[in-house]
Amino acid sequence: MVLETEFQFELGESAEVVYRSLLPELSEKYQRTSASLGLDGSMLWLRIDADDIVSARAALNTWLRLIKIAHELAGVGEAAKVLTSSESL
After folding, report:
1. Would you state the pLDDT for residue 75?
2. Which of 8, 42, 78, 82 has its CA 20 to 30 A from that of 67?
3. Where are the beta strands (DSSP E) in 27-83?
4. pLDDT value, residue 81
5. What parts of the chain have a pLDDT lower than 70?
6. How many Å apart are CA 58 and CA 81, to the nearest integer?
7. What does the pLDDT read at residue 30?
């Protein structure tokens, strides 16, 4: 049995940063799951194919956590840019 899941995330201006930061993770090879990412404007999509429900859950937990962390760090980077540019005024 193959389980297929697909999620879309509206990430605004940080979508490309999140996408590019997660691309290296796709080079990891797993026996029971595969993942793919796509970018369409400010929309990031994630697709996971898994052999069973246990591996699907584990892969989803991993990818959701990675996306959340990358999105939060992109926000920190933007805040730092704003702070730095306002200090130079």
Report:
1. 80
2. 82
3. 33-40, 43-50
4. 55
5. 1, 77-89
6. 35
7. 87
Report the alpha-carbon distance of residue 87 to residue 89 in Å, rounded: 5
CATH number of the domain that residue 29 is part of:
3.30.310.50
Cα gap 69→55, rounded to integer Å: 21
CA-based R_g, the chain, Å: 16
Domain range for 43: 3-87
What value, to the nearest 5°, has the Cα angle with vertex 82 and ends 80 and 88? 100
For the beta carbon of residue 70, count every other beta carbon within 10 angstroms: 20
State both tokens at 50. Answer: 């898994």
Q: What is the DSSP letter of 28?
A: -
DSSP classification of residue 1: -
Rounded distance, CA 4 to CA 35, Å? 10
Amino acid letter, 59? A
Split into its structural domains, the chain has a count of 1
